[in-house]
Each structure stands twice: as structure tokens, then as C-alpha cells.
């Protein structure tokens, strides 16, 4: 089970924070959607998703050629209000709005996004 120290350490990196806030807001996203939303390379996104998965904050699942991530529904009860409040705070930032705009402008998700 994730400890509070591990939880906050995971969120202390800006890229990981941006991934988690998008996943909390949107539910389940594939790596390619996160790549498009954050306007970062697939290797960089994958490098940041790995520790989030390893500490138990995220779950991944493969559906065909796509790897999807979501917030682990078995996180401790104290974690969910923190994630919800984090999204509300992030929602007021220009960067989060830009990330959401890029995500929502990906046509035919995830088919329109080219994964490499």
C-alpha cells in the first residue's frame, strides 16, 4: 500500500503531476493521449508513468496495441480527496487547461494519435 510520503513524492515531479491530474480528471488514458496532451515525447511520458505504476498510484492495462493508465481504485481512502482537490486547484492553471485542450482536440482518440 502506498504511504503518504510515497504519494507526495510521486506528485512532486511536474510531468508526473500533470499525468496524474489528467488521469484523475479524465479516467483512463493511453500513453499516446498523454503524449499529445502534455506535448512531450512518448519515452519521456513512459519514463514518468513507470514510477507511478510501481508505487501503486496508477494501474496499466493493455488493450490491443494500446497501453492505458488509470488511477488505482484501491488507493487508501485518504488519497482520493487529495486527488480531487489537486484537480480543482490545477483546473485554475493555464497549463492544465492547455493540456486538456490538447487532449480534447485529439481526433478519434486513440486511433488518431500515432504511437511509436
Describe this structure in a few short sentences:
The protein is of the alpha+beta class and 116 residues long.
The gross shape turns out to be globular
Largest sheet: 3 strands, antiparallel
Compute the average pLDDT: 91
CATH top level is Mainly Alpha
CATH superfamily: Winged helix-like DNA-binding domain superfamily/Winged helix DNA-binding domain
Structural class: alpha+beta
Poorly predicted runs are: none
**How many β-strands, per DSSP?**
3
Q: Strand portion, in percent? A: 5-15%
Question: What is the topology, as strand order, of the major beta sheet?
Answer: 1-3-2
Helix content: 55-70%
The CATH topology assignment is Arc Repressor Mutant, subunit A
CATH architecture: Orthogonal Bundle
User: Into how many domains do the coordinates divide?
Assistant: 1
Number of helices: 6
Order of helices and strands: HHEHHEEHH
Distance between the termini: 33 Å
From the alpha-carbon coordinates, what is the Rg to the nearest angstrom? 13 Å
